[in-house]
Amino acid sequence: MRALVLLGCLLTSLLFSGQAEETEDANEEAPLRDRSHIEKTLMLNEDKPSDDYSAVLQRLRKIYHSSIKPLEQSYKYNELRQHEITDGEITSKPMVLFLGPWSVGKSTMINYLLGLENTRYQLYTGAEPTTSEFTVLMHGPKLKTIEGIVMAADSARSFSPLEKFGQNFLEKLIGIEVPHKLLERVTFVDTPGIIENRKQQERGYPFNDVCQWFIDRADLIFVVFDPTKLDVGLELEMLFRQLKGRESQIRIILNKADNLATQMLMRVYGALFWSLAPLINVTEPPRVYVSSFWPQEYKPDTHQELFLQEEISLLEDLNQVIENRLENKIAFIRQHAIRVRIHALLVDRYLQTYKDKMTFFSDGELVFKDIVEDPDKFYIFKTILAKTNVSKFDLPNREAYKDFFGINPISSFKLLSQQCSYMGGCFLEKIERAITQELPGLLGSLGLGKNPGALNCDKTGCSETPKNRYRKH
């Protein structure tokens, strides 16, 4: 009996060994797909030098530091949103983030887009979960690997804020510099695959918080699936919650589509939408690309023309993000400035209400606790809507200010009317001018083909001394 069992095990081993050798031989002999459409769509063969945007970025950086950051620091906005903007982030290239379950082809797709297959630059791939690190692919003069602790320590890069997630995470962060023309214009980020049966604490670092950091800074987010991994578990559900509000940047990819016959592909496509429908609460369905993103030719008797067109559409989407780099960067800084302004107005309103309600015999702590617990009773948010041009849809969550003032006592802030100086002007006036004049002017100069570096105070009005609207004259 024991001999029969051993014989069975030996035969099974030989069978799988033979199948593996046949698969490897097939992969080696499989013809590689033509890459000309990638090089044409992404303009990789053009010899023209990269556009010099240093003047625009320098101007944008100056606007941020002079007009936005003073108010941001004075009212401790970073402690509310946990999003600190660094110089490296302002000057960084567009970021493309790859998310999805394990072994759906994220790393293979990056290898394919960059043409790294069978080179020493390629990312390791396999049928098992292979990517356990957050891998950042950047441009460099030669192949170079950068440890996470080095990336976080380099203030010139945009990754220094990642240090707050701890040393365990930095050990799982790796940067790879590759001399590739596409990486001169964009940065790719490969992420660990989502494994639904793994507990969060087993990763050793706050995985969802790290994902949120990259999501907040990504210009384009590819969420990759394959026909065998369409189920939605707790970790994937949490990921889509984090993507809320970024729907315009999400692209769903159904990879390995040439493994399915037509009828089965339609069923899988429908199943994917059925799984994702409860997670994406938008009126328009997300854009879904159906193809196989790897270097081998599409399998015969499949919709090869459809897959190719889908791939070209995805490449055009990627190229559009690269081409709109400056416009997106300016719009992002302006959106950030709007949020900082709203936060400052709210803190000012809380402080003014507190001062109005305080009497000689009042307990300051109890008075402010009453205001924070029920801001609607004191018309905090309604006053902001009535007296300023703030949309009600832009107002932050009331509950967030309970935590904010729990850490930052109200006595540590000054009224907006006191945030003025003769030489520097008023913080509020400066950020409002940046929102309404300087940033739109910088954006308009790009559309008109002007030299943004030539913008000066005469054009933007920044030489005027802002009036203190809160001071009695």
TrEMBL record:
Keywords: Glycoprotein, Membrane, Sarcoplasmic reticulum, Signal. It is a peripheral membrane protein. Its main location: other. InterPro entries: Dynamin_N, EHD_N, G_DYNAMIN_dom, P-loop_NTPase, TRAFAC_Dynamin-like_GTPase. Residues 1-20 form the signal peptide. It holds the Pfam family EHD_N. GO terms for molecular function: GTP binding. GO terms for biological process: store-operated calcium entry. One of its GO terms (cellular component) is sarcoplasmic reticulum lumen. It is found in: Sarcoplasmic reticulum lumen; Sarcoplasmic reticulum membrane. Residues 90-331 form the Dynamin-type G domain. PANTHER family: SARCALUMENIN, TRANSMEMBRANE GTPASE FZO. This is Sarcalumenin.
